[in-house]
């Protein structure tokens, strides 16, 4: 294989408070929907790696859970996962919401950042929602707290200045090979991506009625005689009352979730699927180490 000396590659960790738009940013960069998105905080639990292949660089993105002070075991797990990735990567994107003032969440992350030597780019997101004159004061406030190697204002949703962000990040990548084939967008097993797609649909459908106490486990994926895929998935909730909400009157809500999830999964896998969706109660799963492991949050 011919080695191209001008080719660069490296890992980028995307961090920020919940809901600032980390998943939206990665999805906009990669151009395909693989990271769960929700207007509720803390939906990203696993480190999902997405691969952006350009002519002269390959960037491997790691989407970390929204960093926050841990309240229960799952929170501690999420924080540790985020901290570890910060040391391992080549560049950190610290994503902040331009519509909100710098707060305790941001200061907490800045403290974490001061513990590592990795270069940090401040990504000021959601600039579509603010007046131009408001931007500079925000940037100045953040820059007074930390020495960023670069500052890039963007709108992840409207794809504004994503090119600028790519140019900036390339400055901090080392020369290196293309690790993954061009058509690869994520290294996560399909199982996990499918589970995340279903979880996202449940969260959306139940709106404010269910806290983040749901997990999805894919129990079986098999190919049927007619080449269709059979997928059996279980939505775990913490309480009996939540089970009723997720199923809905006459099973209507679960049916709708299944329908929407099936469309996404079929697009992902490129084949027809039969989605067999179940809801089960697993009490207090968030605080049990064993449960966390069995859902893949190690
Ligand atoms: N107006 C506007 N909204 C945005 C932009 N980027 C993200 N959003 C919205 O902000 C909300 C949160 O976005 P996510 O991408 O899920 O945020 P996140 O940081 O990944 O959140 P967690 O997974 O909870 O950590 C969603 O409703 C997005 O549509 C943007 O550039 N402009």
Explain this structure.
The chain has two domains: 8-175, Rossmann fold (3-Layer(aba) Sandwich); 190-294, K homology (KH) domain (GMP Synthetase, Chain A, domain 3). The model is unreliable at 36-46 (pLDDT under 50). β8 (215-223) and β9 form a beta hairpin. With 298 residues, the protein is α/β, with parallel strands linked by helices. Helix content is 35%, strand content 22%. α6 (190-206) runs antiparallel to α8 (252-269). It contains nine helices and ten strands. The chain is globular. The strands form two sheets. Strands 1, 2, 3, 4, 5, 6 and 7 form a seven-stranded mixed β-sheet that branches. A three-stranded mixed β-sheet has the order 8-9-10. The chain starts with 7 loop residues before the first strand and ends with a helix. The site of guanosine-5'-triphosphate has 23 residues, from α1. Guanosine-5'-triphosphate (GTP) is lined by residues 16, 18-24, 37-39, 41-44, 66, 125-126, 128-129, 155-157. Belongs to the TRAFAC class TrmE-Era-EngA-EngB-Septin-like GTPase superfamily. Era GTPase family. Residues 63-66 are annotated as: G3. Residues 194-283 form the KH type-2 domain.
């Amino acid at each position: 294989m011919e080695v191209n000396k001008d080719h660069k590659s490296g890992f980028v960790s995307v961090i920020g408070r919940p809901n600032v738009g980390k998943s939206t940013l990665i999805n906009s960069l990669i151009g395909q929907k693989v990271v769960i998105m929700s207007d509720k905080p803390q939906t990203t639990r696993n480190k999902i790696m997405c691969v952006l292949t350009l002519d002269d660089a390959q960037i491997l993105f790691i989407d970390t859970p929204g960093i926050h002070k841990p309240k229960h075991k799952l929170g501690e797990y999420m924080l540790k996962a985020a901290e570890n990735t910060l040391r391992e990567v080549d560049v950190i994107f610290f994503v902040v919401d331009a519509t909100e003032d710098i707060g305790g969440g941001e200061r907490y992350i800045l403290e974490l950042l001061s513990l590592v030597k990795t270069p940090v780019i401040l990504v000021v997101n959601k600039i579509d929602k603010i007046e131009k004159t408001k931007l500079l004061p925000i940037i100045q406030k953040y820059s007074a707290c930390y020495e960023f190697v670069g500052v890039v204002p963007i709108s992840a949703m409207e794809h504004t200045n994503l090119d600028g962000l790519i140019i900036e990040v390339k400055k901090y990548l080392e020369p290196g090979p293309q690790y993954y084939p061009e058509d690869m967008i994520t290294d996560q097993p399909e199982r996990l991506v499918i589970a995340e797609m279903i979880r996202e649909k449940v969260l959306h459908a139940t709106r404010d009625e269910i806290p983040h106490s749901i997990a999805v486990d894919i129990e079986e994926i098999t190919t049927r005689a007619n080449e269709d895929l059979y997928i059996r998935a279980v939505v775990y909730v913490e309480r009996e009352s939540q089970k009723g909400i997720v199923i809905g009157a006459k099973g209507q809500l679960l049916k709708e979730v299944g329908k929407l999830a099936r469309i996404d999964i079929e697009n992902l896998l490129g084949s027809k699927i039969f989605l067999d969706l179940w809801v089960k109660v697993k009490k207090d799963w968030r605080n049990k180490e064993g449960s966390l492991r069995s859902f893949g949050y190690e």
